[in-house]
Amino acid sequence: MESHFRSIIKAVTWRAGGTVVTAFVAWIFTGSLDIAARIGILDSLIKIAAFYIHERVWIKLKFGKLKEPEYQI
Q: Which run of H or of E encompasses 7?
């Protein structure tokens, strides 16, 4: 079972690399390191929240989950 804390840590680490890529692309397009950093941070905050919500919704869905045995030996 996934804990809320684990889902948060997964979201943060997943986005760390994405932040760098997004900021780099924004820097190329804008030519401004300040604007690129702001875009990278805002993009990451929004996507971390979206990823967390996505994870929590999927945990609640029964689709594709294997049924736990009634007992274990």
A: helix 4-30
Alpha carbons 54 and 15: distance in angstroms, whole number: 14
Cα–Cα distance measured from residue 52 to residue 57, given in angstroms and rounded to the nearest whole number: 9
Dist CA 20 CA 33 (whole Å): 12
Show the tokens assigned to 42.
Answer: 């805002």
d(CA 58, CA 35): 34
Each residue's pLDDT tens digit, 12-48 = 888 788 898 999 999 999 999 999 999 999 998 898 8
- Return the domain boundaries, the chain: 4-60
